[in-house]
Structures are given as structure tokens and as C-alpha cells.
Give the backbone structure.
Amino acid sequence: MNKSSDEKPVGSAPPLIIRGSKSPWNLSLRELWQYRELVYFLTWRDIKVRYKQTVLGVAWAVVQPLFIALTLSVFLGKLAKVPSEGIPYPVFAYTAMVPWQLFAHALTEAGNSLVANDRLITKVYFPRLAIPMSAVLAGFVDFVIAFFVLIPFLALYRIVPTARVLTLPLFVLLTALIGFGAGLWLSALNVQYRDVRYTIGFLVQLWFLATPVAYPTSVVPERWRAWYGLNPMVGIIDGFRWSLLGSGEAPGGLLAVSVVAIALILGSGLYYFRRMEATFADVI
Amino acid sequence: MSISTIRCQGIGKRYRIGPRQRYRALRDTLADALRAPFHQLRRALRSQPAGEVRGPEFLWALKGINLEVQQGEVLGIIGRNGAGKSTLLKILSRITAPTEGQAEIRGRTGALLDVGIGFHPELSGRENIYLNGAILGMTKREIERRFEEIVEFSECGRFLDMPVKHYSSGMYMRLAFAVAAHLDTEILFVDEVLAVGDAPFQKKCLGKISDAAHQGRTVLFVSHSLVAVEGLCSRAICLHEGKIVMEGPPGVVTSRYLQNWIPASTEVIYDSVESAPGNEVIRLRRACVRPLNGSPADRITVRTPFVVEFEYWKLVAQASLELGVNVYDEHGTHLFQTWWPGDRPVPAGLLRSWFVVPGDLLNTGTHRIHLGVYLGAAAEPFTLQDLLVFEVQDASDLRGLYHGDWLGAVRPNLQWTTEQIETPPGPATAGNRTLP
């Protein structure tokens, strides 16, 4: 056989075995790493396409959290007199909106990602985790833009972050992980049950109300706090405010509960996703 | 020494079919418990036959496939629709998992089961080349290295920075194929992607596949085009109902396939609604092709006008209905398409639709009819491939002085006229004159 010199001879590597059942415990992270360029291109596509043919373009990344924060400030902060732990209410609300948007985006986009990419799934092979993963990663562009708007906001109210701000990346990471974990559940369920699509928006709304974005955690009675912390966004939002604004108490027990909840959701999400993965192409 | 690059051992794939929808709504699962007692009643009210089975049914799309492919072989895979050809490629390219058996593959694989996978209409041609290349499994460096070649092959160089939504469908297909054609894996799975573009471009694509073979790469090629299989492949297999029924040199396999597996079926009748092809909106009862004023058993010649007729139950009155018929000749050439547009409401009940194909249109040979049924939003559309297969025979009165094969996909009987425009210099004649 004529072969050019840069090709490896066939048979040098162990053969690939195709079998029916794969263990859902094996995440094949190595393979995912081999496909990292695909994750990059899919993320890049999602970012590029999102604001094509929109008038405001990337300004949307700011408009949404900003307007929600303003509306909350008027109705809850000014009129309903919701406490804000000594922080001016607009900063209080917007600071929470920034990680909340990252989470809501990750959950929504990852949850719909498999169904939206059905042609990819039925026509070509790659580790399916790449799809929800890139959907989550694409949300970071919005996050970064919204985050930079936070800086003039803080300056306006003369709030100077302390060294606590160094813990911020941890909270950002946790936000992405919980969005990814819950998104994995939803995306795999969405393939099987098409009404999950309609559930997602509803779920995000409920979750928003159960998370201290518009109000402080301190309004929740002490004895319910541990249960409240089972919503992992509670510990994250509190931690985000604490690290940036210095409000509230240092994250302790509540955050620990949240981290455990995140680990459970992410772990079970990965397991369920891997278990259903083999049937995606047949069912979608 | 030849090395088996692909070895399949007892591969089988079972699909779940039956009256259930392909995907369920969560509410179905939740409501199942409540619905069970009412189910009998509802079925009675809808006057559906009681024989309908509700539980899942299974279909083996592939069963007991043992296959070895050597390095450098170009294996053609033929068979009727639903024979399991595409399923086999999907299993080997890891898109779907086999239900039983296993396969061993040595070497990097690439699957071209469709063109333009992942193409995004809003992105430019350049951006889509990168995206599609990455999806097919190319690295960024590989794409960059072959970028110029891809652009040249696609003949879309001038429009590279324009969103592909503004491309003509031909340009779009060319660009999509160009990326696919530059996939350099040791093993390639190709499914029907050749059915794109105009004739010169198709030729170019076929050339690309035979190049791959000459470079010692292994190609598995699924096609309806028997001509392409004969021309490109070194070996062929024929699948029928999920099993390999023939294997051998492509010429032998294709001709035996034509004789044995595409018998003329000028009439198909389904006795019961349950076993008839269709879905919850429509079920086919009968389809036939027959000479005008004749029966399906009568012969059709190139001169005969003939009728294509469908009888079907429409089970839901509100659903809109469109029927599309595609006619192919024995080479797989798509001859024409005709539609019965669903712009009028159609009542429920047993219906008949038909059309007449004029004589002096088709050439001799085996023709195949695919029926497409489109139901608007009411249900998934479906296609019945090779629903009718019929032979068009020669008519002796047309031969004239010529005795060979009549070339071309169609054979219209056209009236020629020859007239004299100018007389040669010499004695004057009376102007233009039509010759007898």
C-alpha cells in the first residue's frame, strides 16, 4: 500500500472496540480532552450566533440584569422596603443578578442544547458532553460584560472591595458547575421528554424566587436556613455579595450545604447523562 | 499482508417501534396511570379496531452482522430502504450503540452521513468551514492547512465572508461537501452524500472518493446509485431486512440485487389498518401503477399513458394532507416529482388519489416510485421508498431505423420539422418550402 510518511501505520494503536453497553461511571474525560477544539468551536459558534441580527448586540448582556435590578430596586427596594443589609438596594440587587444570569443562562442553554443540536447527534460522533459544556461556556461572555458594568456601579456608591474579592473566582466556578450539573439533567431529560423544554423557563422563575437575589438571606428564619441552603444558589449568591460588597456573614455552614448539594446534582447529572447518552441518537 | 481494519461480530440493533410516538411527553408518563381505565372507553369511542397493541414492539434493524473489511478496500453497501444500511454505518461510526455483538476498528474513522452538519446559516462560509471541519473531527491545524484546497474545491471563494444563508442551495451544498471531502481519516463511512449538486460536481465528488481508495484508505459506501457502487467499489454487500444476503464483486451483487430484490411490484394492498404503513392520521390501503384503462397486470410501454393510484384511510378529518411522488429510473436518476397540494381540506374516510403520466415520456427499464406523505402539524411526515416498482417496455413501432438502446433518462416522442430556408444559387424556386 502506498502511504505518505506522516501517516501512522494502521494497527499500531489498539483497536477501538464498539459494544452495546458502556459504563456510565466512566466519564471518558480523556476523550473529551481530545475533542477540546470541538468544545471551543461550539462555544465560539454559540457566542457568534447569539447576537447576530440584533439591534443591541452584546448590550443585551447588560440590559437584562440591569433592568431586572432596576425594577427590583423600585418595587422591592423603594416601595416594599425590602432590607438589603445596609447596602444600597440597586447594588445589592445587581451584584446578585450577575452570577444569577450566568446560572440561568447555563441552565437554560445547556438544558436545550441537545435538542437544539439534534442533527449533530444523529449524524456524527463526538463525546456528547461537549454540547452542554459549550452551552455553559458561552454564557461566560455575558457574565464578563455584565461584571464589568458592576465596577462603575460600585464606584457610584463608593464601595471598595476588600481582599475578600480574591475568593470571587470560587463562587463563579460554583455557579457554572451548578448550572452545568442541573443543565445535564435537563438536557438528557429533554431528549426523552419534550415537555422539559417548557419546564425550563418555569423552573428558572421558581428558582429565582427561592434564591436571595431580591432579598437577603437574613429574612429567612434561622431554623430554616439549613434547608434553604439546599438550594445551592443561596450559598453562592451570599458568597458573591460577601466577597464583593462585604455584606452579611462570612460563608460557612450554608455554603458547605450548598457545595454538597452542587456535588450531588453535578455527580448525578453526569451519571444520568452518561447512562442516557447511548440512546440519544435513537430517541432525539 | 492485509489487515482487517474493521471486524464486526454478530452486530445487532433493535429499535423500539409500534403505535407509540418516538419521544414521549413527560405528561404521558404521568398520565399513564390515570389513563389506563379510560383507555378502553376512548378506543371504543374513536371506533379504532381493538387489535391495536399499545405496548412497545421491537424491530431488529440489524441482526447477526459478521463482516470483515481489509485495509484499502472500498466496500459498497446496497439494499432497499430500511434494510439496515444506514444503521450499520451509524453503529460503526459510534453514533448509536449496537444492541448486541461488537466491532473492532483499527484506525481513525470519519463519518460523512450528511453534508453540512452543524452549518449555521448566520455564519459566513469561512466560519462554517472551521465549524463543520471541527464537528467532523478535524483539528484546527488540519483545517488551516487544507483551507485553500477546500475553498478551491467548493468554487465559493468569492462569497467566503458572506453568511451562508445568502448562498444558493448549490453553493451551500458545494461548500458543505468540500469540507467533508477533505476529511483525511484512514477509514471513511460515506452515506449517499453524493446525491448533491449538479452533474459535474457529483463527478468531482466521486473522484474524491476513488482518490481516497487509491491512497490506501478504507471506505464503506452506502448508496442507492448502483452505477456509483459498480464504478467505485472493490467489493459489495447487499443487506435485506437487517441481514447480509449477498457479498461479492460489485457488478455481480448489483445485478443480482436488481433481479432478486427489486421485483416489479405494480400493486401493493394492505388488508388491515394496523399492518398498513402510515401513522395515526393516515394509513395506506392500496397503491398501484397500471396502464390507463388497464389493470396493474397489464404491461406498460414507452407509449402507454399510465395511472399511479393510492387508496388510503384518513383517520383524522382536520389534518391537512400533501402527497409527493418521486420517480426514479433504474440508475437511481431522479426523473421527476409531482405533488398533490393540500390546499383544500380533506375529509376523513377511505380516499383515493391518482394522477396520469402521459405516454411518450419515460424511457425503458425499471422505474421506482417513492411516496412522501406530509401532514402539516398533525404528524411526522413519512416516505415510502420503492413503494411501486414497474417496468417500462419498448414499443416496437417507435424504433425507426435505430436498433440500439435509446439513451437518456426520458424518451419523449418529439415531432421534428425540417424546412428549407434558402435555395442554392441557381434557378429560382417558390420561396421557403417545408419538406415532406
